[in-house]
Amino acid sequence: MRELAGAFLDQLTVERGASRHTLAGYRRDLGRYLGFLDRLGRTDIGAVTTADVEAFLEDLRRGDPEAGRAPLAPSSVVRVLSAVRGLHRFAAAEGAAADDPAARVRPPKTPGRLPKALSLAEVERLLAAIPGGEAAGVADLRDRALVELLYSTGARVSELCDLDVDDLDRADGLVLLRGKGGRERLVPVGRPALAAAEAWLVRGRPALARAGSPPALLLNRLGRRLSRQSAGNALAAIGERAGLPGRVSPHALRHSFATHLLEGGADIRTVQELLGHASVTTTQIYTRVTAENLRRVWAGAHPRAGG
């Protein structure tokens, strides 16, 4: 079964163009699933039943404190089930199993969570917490470019970390982002973000680049490509300084980008293109955010809102 899982991951890479982050997630989730099947004594994927898959999901929800496994949230269980379903579909298509037992398993219901967007004032506070002008150090220049570009483009943090210098067209104010499944899109970049990127490229990046450094737009202090984790840590630290503890993450800036565009009158299809969503259904969650904002303003301002 592990060889079959390896072949499935190879297919995701070659035929579907899955990103390395997606592959790492699938590999982790399938490793957990195959370990569970080992404990059940299943050695043939054709012998796995729907009851086995359901028992695995229940095991994820319950966790095992003695083994150091915390219970997974419903949203995480849904993510793992997606990987399990993919493996069983692959097994059936390759003739390694007669049917797909995971197809009959219903995913757990997940609570409809609204993204936590920063307000415009909070974005300004975040930027103000990064030293500017002559007081800005190399890390400050990079961090301002990071924040400005994330908020200006709505990029996923992995997309921004994967950017090379040549992907940013400073003359035309465009950036080439490579999203899920290898899909590319051109996204406009605002003047403040372009100015921050220019300052970083002229005054900051040369101080970190060294022989053998990648052509990455954003570098870490060792002259290597900035990682998603390092970007997240930098944002969290800036958020603490701005008085926004626990509020600031790359995804929060992506949420803020989409929410503020819709509140400003942007068409949802345009926002879908900018975010790189394959389906407008994914983008529609942001209309719920703006509706909540409208409801809150109405409740505080309308004379008969309180009933």
From TrEMBL:
Q: Which SUPFAM superfamilies match?
A: DNA breaking-rejoining enzymes (SSF56349)
* Top-level taxonomic group: Bacteria
The reply to whether Nucleus figures as a keyword in the UniProt entry is no
Q: Which segments constitute the Core-binding (CB) domain?
A: 1-92
Catalytic residues (UniProt): R156, K180, H251, R254, H277, Y286
Keyword Protein biosynthesis in record: no
Swiss-Prot/TrEMBL keywords: Cell cycle, Cell division, Chromosome partition, Cytoplasm, DNA integration, DNA recombination, DNA-binding
Q: Name one GO molecular function term.
A: tyrosine-based site-specific recombinase activity
UniProt domain Tyr recombinase: residue ranges: 113-299
Q: Name one Pfam family in it.
A: Phage_int_SAM_1
Task: State the GO CC annotations.
Answer: cytoplasm
The main place the protein resides is cytoplasm
GO-annotated biological processes? cell division; chromosome segregation; DNA transposition
**Record function comment:** Site-specific tyrosine recombinase, which acts by catalyzing the cutting and rejoining of the recombining DNA molecules. The XerC-XerD complex is essential to convert dimers of the bacterial chromosome into monomers to permit their segregation at cell division. It also contributes to the segregational stability of plasmids.
Oligomeric and partner information? Forms a cyclic heterotetrameric complex composed of two molecules of XerC and two molecules of XerD.
| Similarity remark | Belongs to the 'phage' integrase family. XerD subfamily.
Q: What is this protein called?
A: Tyrosine recombinase XerD
